[in-house]
Structure formats: structure tokens, C-alpha cells
Fold each of these.
Amino acid sequence: MKWNLHHVNLNVFDMDATRSFYLDALQLEQGKAHTIGTSFGDMGVDDSNLLCVGEENAGIHLLKPLADFAKRTGLAINPAVGGHTAIQVEDIREVIRRLDEAKIFYSYARDHAMPGIHQLYVYDPSGNLIEINQAMS
């Protein structure tokens, strides 16, 4: 299956210092988070706790841990605590079929955060949280 690295989500505890590190010290460019809008804001995510480095939601997501994010979104897995790596695939339905076949637990978020991008969250056998996503047309 073809895939590419979409983004890495890192937890941030001091947003001002972290913002300065990535944007000033490393001279990386801040991207714009393309989110669903007010519904994402209702989930507690805004410029005070999210910084995207990169374009079109790809690159690095720097996010303050949001302990109640799973409750607000109805997800069974909280992608806003502990960080995660996101892999983009061509056919998320095939991934879902394989996970179901292997009886591996995951949380399918559909496009809860990014318009037109379906996401699911799954832990690998070592406990690392992985987001698998697909741009839907």
C-alpha cells in the first residue's frame, strides 16, 4: 500500500517558548491549520494551543495536551495527549478492512478535524499512537 508521512503531532507545554523555538530559532514557517472551523474551536483547539508548521495540515503539529478532547469529540482514543504520527494512505477503507480482519482496535474519526480528510487512530503493538488518514474527494 502506498503511503507518505503526513504530519507529526508533538505535545507542547509552553506554547510561547515552543513557538519561538520553531519560528524564530529554527526559522520554520508557520502554516495555517485548515480545520472545520467553529466545530474544531468547540473542541477546545485554537491558536493558543495549536501551532502548525507546514502547509495544508502537513508537517509538524504542536498541540497543548487536551485531556478532555476525546470526550468533546466522541472519539475512543485521544489524539491530543501524548502526540502521534500521521500516515496518509490512498485507501483508508482498505486499512479499516485489514484492522477489522486482524481484530485491532481503532477509533475512526472521519473528518472531525480537517475538511475532506478522513482520519483514524490506532495504537501500534508498542503503544505508539498512529493516525492514518486519506484525503477524500
Note: The first helix runs from residue 15 to 25.
Amino acid sequence: MALLTEDLVRQMSNNGTRGPVVVNRNDVLTPSARSYLLEHRVEVVYPQGAVSTQQSAEGAKQTAAAAGPKYTTLFGAALQEKPEHMTHLKGNILVFKDHPRIAFRGFIDLLEADIMQSQLVVREAGYQSLCAELEEVLSFVRRFIRFDVLDEAVGEVHLCGYTPDQLREYSHYPERHFGQPHFMVSVNDGKAILAVNKLRTVVRQTELAAYKAFRDENGAVSRNDIILGLNRLSSLMWIMMIKLKAGKYPKESR
């Protein structure tokens, strides 16, 4: 009998990026391993003749005996059932739903929704190339939950053809690069600019949520890469607004 722990199935699935995970006869998946496989949608294969631990009463008893409590908390509690006011931080670790890391993930969800709303607005305004750029932004933002949960590094932010240095430079000196100085947004700027401006503010709110999620009691942060990535994304939003104001995006029919 092999006891398949969360750490082991992580290795077997290459941290959720490769599957399936093969569970042989008499293998026992621990509760945290099962939670991990479900959370990351890793395929589990039971070879012919193998018995699923989820279907085997004996396997369930072995799992309970070997694995102990089904859930743990950051404050040392051991639980067999997940309370409704708690949710998964990572694996079988539960936290309260107002935990800063969970709040940060909620802002990522909100940001994704606002990106898609902005895509509708700019597409209807005829800015097809901008809509495509926002699709690239959406793909980037959707990776942030993975960055958090799997402790993956964000890496250098290359978006819409800009390097990290260009994102900072062009957003700071727009007149030098686009012939358009900084400006105060007004209702007369039109729906496209107002939509991207709203999106920019949500990026900034998400960056602040990330700081709250990853700072310690002294203000130092453990995931500066996540905060920096969102900061560069905010710069990109401002560049998009500048380009709209300067007429740098062509209007195209759908």
C-alpha cells in the first residue's frame, strides 16, 4: 500500500501542470491530496483492477487513520469538516473568508470581470486592436491566482509589446513618446477612455489588496513580484488611455 500525500501528488502532477496521476490498487489518497487534485482539476486514473479510495470503505478508514484531521488552520485547529465561514488558503489549510489573501483573490476576480466589461465597450466603440490587447491583459491577470496558490514567480512583465522598463517610461513621459501630455479625464473623453480609466482604478485597488495580503507586521512584503506586476499593469492602463486620447488606436469595423 502506498500513501499518496499532497506533496507526492504535487510531484506526480508537476504541480498541477501535468497529469494524470495514477492510483494503483490499495493506494490511499490523503484528504489533502484529494483536495489538491480536485482544486487543480488533475485527472486521476485507476488502472484496471484498482480500487478507488473514494469507493472503498476500508481505504477510507486507512486514509483517516494515516492522515488524521481532514483540515488544519493557521491558528493550529484540526477539523474534519469545513465550516461555511472558512475557505481554502492552500491545500487543506483553511482560513476565514475575510483573510487578506482571500480578499486579494476576490479583487483578481473583480479585475477579470471589469476587463471583459471594458472589452465590450471598446469593441462597440470600434477599437478592435485595443480589445485584443485587453484580451492579452485578461490572460495575464488570470495567472495571478496560480502565482499566489502555487508560489510561482510572476517574472518580467511583457505586455502588449512593451518591456517592463518601457511600461514605466512611457507612462511617466507620454508626451515624449505619444505626443500627448498627462490629462484629467472628463465625461467628454468618451466611453472607451472612461472604461479603461475605471479598469485602471480597479488595478490600483488590486495592487493595494496585494500589499495587504503579503505584508508582515513591519510592512515588508513576501511577494514583491505580484505587487510589481500589478503596478506595471496600472502603467499599461494609463498608456492605453494616452493612446486613445492621442488617436493612436485606429477605429475598425467589427
Note: The first helix runs from residue 6 to 12.
Amino acid sequence: MKRILLIDGHPDPDPGRFIHALAQAYADGATIAGHEVRRLDLATMDIPFLRTRSDWTDAAPPPAIADAQADIHWAEHLVILYPLWLGDMPALLKAFLEQVARPGFALEQGTVPKPLLGGRSARLVVTMGMPAFFYRFFYGAHSVKSFERNILKLVGIKPVSSSLIGNVEGDEADRTSWLAEMRELGSAAA
């Protein structure tokens, strides 16, 4: 059994957002399979933006961020769900990642940064209005690849898998199928 941390990165707390349903489906599948699950809903957290390097290197993390760091430290597998906005993650998720990935927690500073979050795996679940194959092949899924390589693997989190979910405002049958797939992924802690 694995310790799983779900990070729901949709900035809108409206329960009607499909990301929230996907996160719940994954959590349900994981819980039924006996995995331990914790959840962070960024839309309900106080996440200030970092404005200076000294804020990042010298200031103590705000309480919500310190709690999130404890949950990340606890987890063996991270599931990060977010909508694709302007070809990338929403600003709130980026602010969260900047806050959590402080020196001494995610990286040991030096000429070559040393990753401190090894031993964890991750899955990225990204929703979008366009067809996922179009984002993957025409745009090269550049933001997802960058997130995987330049953030997660940089701090030692690997392997990283991804689920790209397109046409989220389309067919109800497609949404039902994606919810079933999330429950299966949760059950397998994948």
C-alpha cells in the first residue's frame, strides 16, 4: 500500500469543475484499494506569490506551505491535477510550487542543485478544452514535459506519468470514462 498525496491545482473552488471530480475519483479508487490518501485543494489555501529571491531563500514558509511540505515529505506518490490555461499551469499552482520548492526542502543549493525529494513518483493529470492529441502532437505537450523535467525530476521525483484529458466540456460519456480511469489509476496507485 502507498501513501498518496493528491494536489488539486484548480484555482476555482466551484465543486462543478471537472478537475475536482477527477481528484475525488482517484481518491475513491485509492482508498478502496487500501492506500493512504491525503489531499491538498489549492483553491482553498492561502498561497502568497514570491516576489524576491530572499523571500524564497530566507523567509520561513507560510503555515499552509509548511503543512503542504510535510504532506509531500510523507507521500510516496504525488498526483497533481490542473487545467491547462494559456498553454500552461494556472498561476496559483505555479505559486504553490515556488513556495514549496524552497532550498533545504526540495533542493540543496550549490553549483549543481542536489535533489532532496527522491524516492517519490508522480502522475500529472491535465485537463483542456482542445483535443488532447492536438495538444500532444501539435504543441508537443511542452508545458507538461517542462513540469516533469524542470520541476519534478529536478527535485528527484521520478518516474512521472501523465494523463492528458481533452474536450472536457464535450461528451458526458467521455467524462464518465475518464472518471472510471481515474478510479482505476487510484486503485493501482499509478
Note: The beta strands are 3-8, 36-41, 77-83, 107-108, 114-115, 121-127, 160-165.
Amino acid sequence: MNKLYKKGFTLIELLVVITVIGLLSAMVLVGLSGVRAQGRDTRRIADLRNTQNALEIYFNANTEYPSSTDWDSLETELINADIGVKKLPRDPLLSRSYEYAVSGDGLHYVLMAGLESQDSQALREDSDGVVYGVSCEDPSYCIEL
């Protein structure tokens, strides 16, 4: 009977192994949070580029950009223009939103998304300041045309 007990693990050994695995998992998840934020920022920039493409199609059909004052009305206007837009993208976190503003003459616009990463390379290449009433100060990424 003594041989049976020597073949298995003790409760203490199992608890130590489970604790070590838990600590390693926690460290990996903490390390991935920055990568996940960068992924969401990349998606935000791609969303603005796709919206920019839809705006250019709209401009070619109407010789001016939509006169909408917010993202939801821009979506409605692009859908009703019958240019192939089914819906506009939303921010991956949903607690943030994208912004759109148009110039008074309808020939220029700005698209804005707030990024999570303050040191993103994209922030060095975007518009800064206030454009058509939209604040484009970092960490906001703006596309201006």
C-alpha cells in the first residue's frame, strides 16, 4: 500500500504548480495589453481611411462633401447617397467615437479618431491644432482634406 502513495503528487505540489502557472499567465496578459491597444489604434486609422474613400466617392457624385455635423448623420447621408455604403465603422472600444466636420464651402473636411498610444508613429504624420471645430491635438489622429 505504501507504493501507491509514492506514484502520485501531493496536494502541496499541485498547488505550487497551479500558482506558478497562474503567475505566468498574469504576466503574459499584462504584457499583451500594449499590443492590444496598438491593434485598436491601427483599426481606428484603417476605419478613417475607409471612410475617406467613401467621402471621395460621395464627392465625385455630388461635387461637395456631406454637410453632416456628426458621425451618425454622416452615416445616414452616405447611406442615402446610394454609393455602396452600408454603415460606417465604430470605435473598437465603443466608449470613444469618431468625429467628422466639413468646411463652410463643402470642399474640405476632417476625420478624427482618438488613439490610445501617445507615441504612435501615425501621430507624427497627421494634422494638429483645431480643424473645422475638431480638436486634432495628440493623441487625436486626424485626416484633413
Note: Strands lie at 99-102, 109-114, 130-131, 134-135, 140-144.
